[in-house]
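In response to the reviewer comment on reproducibility (Comment 2.3), we provide here a single inverse folding case reported in full, input and output, so that an independent group could reproduce the run without further information from us. The structure tokens appear first.
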């Protein structure tokens, strides 16, 4: 919902960080799947209209191809276009 409030007046916005827990319950239900598809659609619109980059932060000790497949299920159009960056949270410092 917050992404829908972004307008052309938000010129300083350059990137969006999304933390995605690696948890099978994150996908599967119709409502959850719809919300992920909506997010995917809004992120595509922001990239096309404002060149806003999206990074997905994950924290799991798994092979990268497993994580990529999981994210591809959540944000299929973003991954298909190659406009999403995966960031392993191990060693990542995010200021509070």
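Designed residues, in position order:
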């Amino acid at each position: 919902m917050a992404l829908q409030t972004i307008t052309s007046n938000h010129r300083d916005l350059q990137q969006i960080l999304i933390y995605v827990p690696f948890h099978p319950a994150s996908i599967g239900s119709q409502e959850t799947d719809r919300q992920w598809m909506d997010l995917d659609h809004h992120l595509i619109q922001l990239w096309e209209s404002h060149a806003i980059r999206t990074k997905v932060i994950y924290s799991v000790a798994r092979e990268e191809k497993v994580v990529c497949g999981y994210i591809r299920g959540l944000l299929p159009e973003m991954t298909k276009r190659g406009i999403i960056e995966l960031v392993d949270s191990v060693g990542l410092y995010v200021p509070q």
